[in-house]
Amino acid sequence: MSGTVFWGDSLVAGLINDTDRLLFKQHNVADLGLSGDTAPQILARYQQSPNRCYDQWNHVIWAGQNHIDTASLVNSVASMVSAISATHTRFLVVSVINAGMTGVDQGPAGARYLEKMAANTIMRSTYGAKFLDLHRMLVDYGKSISDVQSLSFDAPPSTFQPVDIHLTGPNGYTFCTLAILNKLQSLGYLTRSVTNAQIVAAGGAA
């Protein structure tokens, strides 16, 4: 059996929830998101032997929300990609996002924001087509609906982030799920497409 394994923190745990799982109905999915994990801790879990059962699966890496520094994030992701690539090259690195309601995480000058965006720039250059700039997609959507948080702080819209960095607002995680699924399909990693009926069932627009 093979499928797609998601590595990350609480954002991954929120992403693979009961509603958005409808979008993955035709695919085997493993949720290895652990709340509070930093990128080095996610790497350490990946390296543990019980988790090597996923070696042949597609790998989605969404790390860095519990930020330490740019180098630790970039290097941890690089170590995971290097290990995955020893078996195959079906991986996707998802950009780190910021929290628009937290000063240090706000653009354009928050210290943590700047380090996160620096990491995104490096990973975009390193992984090319296998990098998904989810941060930019979320911000662009927020700007399209004139969301103040997106316009003022280069952050996901407040409609998706009503409390903190977690995308618990209506359709917040569904937006991310669709973006990741579409990217996986464009890379040829998924053997079946998501149907319009599944998208509507999960709260998205077909």
Give an overview of the whole structure:
The chain has 206 residues and is α/β, with parallel strands linked by helices. It has helices at residues 10-15, 39-47, 70-85, 111-127, 134-144, 148-153, 172-186, 196-201; strands at residues 4-8, 29-33, 58-62, 91-94, 131-132. A five-stranded parallel β-sheet has the order 2-1-3-4-5, sandwiched between helices. Helix 2 packs parallel to helix 3 (70-85) and helix 3 runs parallel beside helix 4 (111-127). It is globular, with a radius of gyration of 16 Å.
List the helices and strands and how they pair.
Layout: E1 4-8, H1 10-15, E2 29-33, H2 39-47, E3 58-62, H3 70-85, E4 91-94, H4 111-127, E5 131-132, H5 134-144, H6 148-153, H7 172-186, H8 196-201
Parallel strand pairs: 1-2, 1-3, 3-4, 4-5
Helix pairs in contact: 2-3, 3-4
Summarize the structure.
The protein has 206 residues and is an alpha/beta fold. It has helices at residues 10-15, 39-47, 70-85, 111-127, 134-144, 148-153, 172-186, 196-201; strands at residues 4-8, 29-33, 58-62, 91-94, 131-132.
Low-confidence parts, pLDDT < 50 over ≥5 residues? none
Could you report the average pLDDT, rounded to the nearest whole number?
89
For the largest sheet, list the strands in their spatial order.
2-1-3-4-5
| Terminal-residue CA separation | 29 Å
Defining traits:
206 residues, alpha/beta, 8 helices, 5 strands
